[in-house]
Description:
globular, 198 residues, 6 strands, alpha/beta
Amino acid sequence: xxxxxxxxxxxxxxxxxxxxxxxxxxxxxxxxxxxxxxxxxxxxxxxxxxxxxxxxxxxxxxxxxxxxxxxxxxxxxxxxxxxxxxxxxxxxxxxxxxxxxxxxxxxxxxxxxxxxxxxxxxxxxxxxxxxxxxxxxxxxxxxxxxxxxxxxxxxxxxxxxxxxxxxxxxxxxxxxxxxxxxxxxxxxxxxxxxxxxx
Length: 198
């Protein structure tokens, strides 16, 4: 199972597209959306997208090709959920987009929610914990928190577009970033070709 968390940073489409890609790849996905994450979904994707606060409904509206039976959704206060324990069969945790609040919580072991606890568990169990921080410009506090999570074993994947792939649309840029996250998780994809290949 791969846990995908969506927090209250801009760029929620990245989290939604990652969930779609993981399901299309046949992976089991557990989703945790913070309250602020739902607010940003409503703002960036439209109020209807956040109606009912169910990711499965949002994916159906988007016409997802993956198997929704592989999707589990948990409330951020649901500490009885599998991602809260090292015995919960979690392969990796990805927060995308990752707010600076969530970055700070992970950096300092402040597991005040299911999502932050899932990261805490991933780090202690030596599982992949991938954070996609969405903020600019960065303060020294942000940089120090990034340093702390890196020292703890997390992987940072800033959502930086690559222009060597000659993107023509916003979707091309999104796909490149999703490809980078999937590459970090060792999941095959076709969003971009490996460097050096025609």
